[in-house]
Amino acid sequence: MTKKKILIGIGGLITIGIITGTLFFGRHIFFPQKSAQTKGEESITPTPKVDLLTWDDPAGFSFQYPKGLEVNAHEEDTVNYAHVELTNPEYKGSIVIWGKDTTATTIAQWLKNEKSLKDAVSIDTTLGGNEAKKVALKGPKIKQIIATLDEDILVMIEMDLEAQKFWQQVGDMIAGSFTFTNSQKENATDNASSGEEPPAAADEEESVE
Question: What value, to the nearest 5°, has the Cα angle with vertex 87 and ends 86 and 89?
Fold first, then answer.
């Protein structure tokens, strides 16, 4: 009689174990955890939208830049064709777009003659559809320059990358949207040629009745 009770007890424990295991594993099959992701799925963080403004410069170029930057056109600079400085009080560094006179006839010649860039690393690129050079300076400040020739005007995007990630993104955005229009020299020539012609001399002959 005692053996029978023991066997019944063991059988009951086995049955309870089977039922418990079935309920435990079945719960994961029929009620998967919400946090579990299907294989191959990844969490995608949306890229924030950046509001862009357009700068049209009298020197004959335009570009886009993120809203929130401070822009100084340095109107006191009467030597260069363009001197546009972009800054942000939250990030150290800046970007300056220059328009300068040069005697170089190619951008490669300009780079070769520029002594301050003698030991800098440079690669070929384009700016506004023109052949350009991208130059990296490692010291004393990290800088990057993208330079090209618009006819006989040297146009440069000079990046002070003290806050490197931020200004690199801004600089790439400016360079990617950069376009050329009429140069300042062309505008000056057009303005000079658009003056009114002096009136034709009046016919001094009078009809005699």
Answer: 160
0.70 surpassed by pTM: no
- The stretch 164-188 carries a mean pLDDT of 85
Give residue-wise pLDDT tens across range 66-107: 999 999 999 999 999 999 999 999 999 999 999 999 999 999
Domain that holds residue 141: 52-191
Digit-coded pLDDT (tens) for 116-126: 898 889 999 99
Residue 59 lies in a domain: yes
Residue with token string 């009429």: 182
**What's the CA gap between 183 and 161, in Å, rounded?**
28
Q: What is the CATH number of the domain that holds 129?
A: 3.40.1000.10
**Nearest residue to 148 via CA among 117, 115, 125:** 125
In this structure, are 13 and 61 located in the same domain? no
43 found inside a domain: no
Cα separation, 59 vs 143, whole angstroms = 24
The Cα–Cα gap between 156 and 95 comes to 10
